[in-house]
């Protein structure tokens, strides 16, 4: 996943440069589509919205894929997870957009699962399906992988909060705080 993030970050910079250097200030439809999808992948909804406003209307009207990407963005903006998955599934994405869209869907789903794990002590199966866009079989697999408890009748799930990775190093503020505590302890 880290390699994908790096590649999308690099591609984003390259596409932004292409937009800036485009003849007459108008980039290609592919540039706009990829850049818009990457902003959504990065959860940079503000830049996505500003880009949407910059895309010339004739490019939008002649390229329905760009409008479909923006529909996904609108669902994300409204925090409509079920609508997001519907908008992602309804369009037949073309290359190279489809790679970004698949990564976006995985990222949205992973964020939703982490949110569910941190926020819910129990959740209905139907709500979990709606928030993840997964099938019943996939939900059962996710519960097994994450060690989430599924009720016997299969209607309720008890999530477990995700394990937060411990930082490899402490921040300067943390180190200063610990040093201050230590000095204060020695002075007493």
From TrEMBL:
GO terms for biological process: COP9 signalosome assembly; protein deneddylation. It comes from the Eukaryota. The keyword Cytoplasm applies. Its main location: cytoplasm. GO terms for cellular component: COP9 signalosome; cytoplasm. Keywords: Cytoplasm, Nucleus, Signalosome. The keyword Ubl conjugation does not apply. Residues 29-161 form the CSN8/PSMD8/EIF3K domain. It is found in: Cytoplasm; Nucleus. InterPro entries: COP9_CSN8 (IPR033205), CSN8_PSD8_EIF3K (IPR033464), WH_DNA-bd_sf (IPR036390). This is COP9 signalosome complex subunit 8. The lineage of its organism: Eukaryota, Metazoa, Ecdysozoa, Arthropoda, Hexapoda. The gene is LOC106118138.
């Amino acid at each position: 996943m880290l390699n994908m993030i790096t590649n999308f970050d690099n591609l984003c910079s390259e596409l932004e440069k292409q937009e800036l250097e485009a003849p007459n200030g108008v980039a290609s439809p592919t540039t706009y589509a990829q850049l818009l999808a990457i902003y959504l992948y990065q959860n940079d909804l503000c830049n996505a919205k500003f880009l949407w406003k910059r895309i010339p209307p004739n490019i939008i009207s002649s390229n329905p894929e760009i409008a479909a990407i923006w529909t996904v963005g609108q669902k994300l903006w409204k925090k409509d997870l079920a609508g997001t998955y519907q908008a992602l599934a309804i369009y037949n994405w073309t290359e190279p957009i489809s790679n970004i869209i698949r990564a976006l869907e995985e990222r949205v789903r992973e964020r939703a699962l982490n949110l569910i794990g941190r926020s819910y002590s129990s959740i209905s199966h139907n709500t979990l399906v709606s928030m993840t866009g997964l099938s019943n079989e996939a939900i059962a697999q996710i519960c097994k992988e994450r060690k989430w408890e599924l009720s016997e009748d299969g209607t309720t799930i008890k999530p477990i909060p995700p394990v937060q990775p411990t930082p490899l190093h402490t921040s300067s503020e943390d180190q200063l705080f610990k040093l201050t505590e230590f000095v204060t302890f020695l002075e007493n």
